[in-house]
C-alpha cells in the first residue's frame, strides 16, 4: 500500500449556490458575476445520484442582504435523501438560525454574524456545538464580511477568539480564488491548520483532480473536506472522478 492510499479520505461537498431561485456560480464572490445552472433541486439531486455524502447549500441573496431563497432551500433539503446538507448564507440571529436548523440541514455555516456579533456567535457555538461551523472568508489575512463586500477584521485575531468560544469546525475560503479555477490556497490552509486542532473545510479555486489530490494530502494536518463548485459545473471532472481521488 502506498502512502497516498493510506491517507484518510477527503470529504467532498459539491456546492449548490442559490440566487433568484436558480442554482448559480459567482466569480470571486461578486454580485452580478452569476452564471446560472438551472433548478437547485435538480443540481442537488444530480450530486446525490453521483455519490455525494454532503452538499454545501448557499442562499446567496440572504448572504448579500437582498432577500432570501428559504422556500427553495427547504425544497432542496426535503427532496435530497441520504445526503447531509451544510447550509450557509444570511444566518445572523436566533430567528434565521432556528429556521435553518429546523429546515433539516445537518450543519449551519455562520459567516458575517461570527465576525460582527461575536458574543452571539459564541453563545450559539456553546448551545449547538458540532452543528455550527464558522466560515472564514479571507483576502490575504483580512476577513471579508457581508457577502464579501466589507472588511471583517484580522484572520488570526478572529480565529483566536473563535477558538476561545469553542468553535468545532471552520470553512475556509480564499475569496480571491473562488470561482476562478486557479487552484486552492494550500499555504493558507497549512497555516490555519497549524493554529487550530479543529477540522477545516477548504473552499475556493479547485480546478482539477490534482487540486483534490493536493488537498487530500493535507487531511493529516486537519483539512477534513473540500467544497467543489465551478469545476464540477464547468465539466472539468465528474463528481465520481473527484470522489475516487478524494479516497471514497
Automatic annotation (TrEMBL):
Pathway: Amino-acid biosynthesis; L-histidine biosynthesis; L-histidine from 5-phospho-alpha-D-ribose 1-diphosphate: step 4/9. InterPro entries: Aldolase_TIM, His_biosynth, HisA/PriA, HisA/PriA_Actinobacteria, Isoase_HisA-like, RibuloseP-bd_barrel. Pfam families: His_biosynth. The active site is at residues 17, 137. It comes from the Bacteria. One of its GO terms (molecular function) is phosphoribosylanthranilate isomerase activity. Its EC number is 5.3.1.16. It is found in: Cytoplasm. Transmembrane segments: none annotated. Keywords: Amino-acid biosynthesis, Cytoplasm, Histidine biosynthesis, Isomerase. It catalyses: 1-(5-phospho-beta-D-ribosyl)-5-[(5-phospho-beta-D-ribosylamino)methylideneamino]imidazole-4-carboxamide = 5-[(5-phospho-1-deoxy-D-ribulos-1-ylimino)methylamino]-1-(5-phospho-beta-D-ribosyl)imidazole-4-carboxamide. Belongs to the HisA/HisF family. HAMAP family: HisA. NCBIfam families: hisA-trpF. This is 1-(5-phosphoribosyl)-5-[(5-phosphoribosylamino)methylideneamino] imidazole-4-carboxamide isomerase. It comes from Microbacterium thalli.
Amino acid at each position: 500500500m502506498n502512502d497516498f492510499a493510506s491517507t484518510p479520505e477527503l470529504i467532498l461537498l459539491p456546492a449548490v449556490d442559490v440566487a433568484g431561485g436558480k442554482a448559480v456560480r459567482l466569480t470571486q464572490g461578486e454580485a452580478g458575476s452569476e452564471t446560472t445552472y438551472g433548478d437547485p433541486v435538480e443540481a442537488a439531486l444530480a450530486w446525490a445520484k453521483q455519490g455525494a455524502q454532503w452538499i454545501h447549500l448557499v442562499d446567496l441573496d440572504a448572504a448579500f442582504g437582498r432577500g432570501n431563497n428559504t422556500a427553495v432551500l427547504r425544497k432542496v433539503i426535503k427532496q435530497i435523501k441520504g445526503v447531509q446538507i451544510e447550509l450557509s448564507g444570511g444566518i445572523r440571529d436566533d430567528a434565521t438560525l432556528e429556521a435553518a436548523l429546523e429546515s433539516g440541514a445537518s450543519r449551519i455555516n455562520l459567516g458575517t454574524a461570527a465576525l460582527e456579533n461575536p458574543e452571539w456567535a459564541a453563545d450559539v457555538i456553546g448551545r449547538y456545538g458540532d452543528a455550527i461551523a464558522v466560515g472564514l472568508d479571507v483576502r490575504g489575512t483580512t476577513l471579508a464580511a457581508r457577502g464579501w463586500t466589507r472588511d471583517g477584521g484580522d484572520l488570526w485575531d478572529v480565529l483566536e477568539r473563535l477558538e476561545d468560544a469553542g468553535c468545532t469546525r471552520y470553512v475556509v475560503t480564499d475569496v480571491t480564488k473562488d470561482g476562478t479555477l486557479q487552484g486552492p490556497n494550500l499555504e493558507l490552509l497549512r497555516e490555519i491548520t497549524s493554529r487550530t486542532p479543529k477540522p477545516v473545510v477548504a473552499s475556493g479555486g479547485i480546478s482539477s483532480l490534482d487540486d483534490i489530490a493536493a488537498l487530500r494530502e493535507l487531511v493529516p494536518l486537519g483539512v477534513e473536506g473540500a467544497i467543489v463548485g465551478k469545476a464540477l459545473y464547468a465539466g472539468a471532472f465528474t463528481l465520481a472522478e473527484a470522489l475516487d481521488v478524494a479516497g471514497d
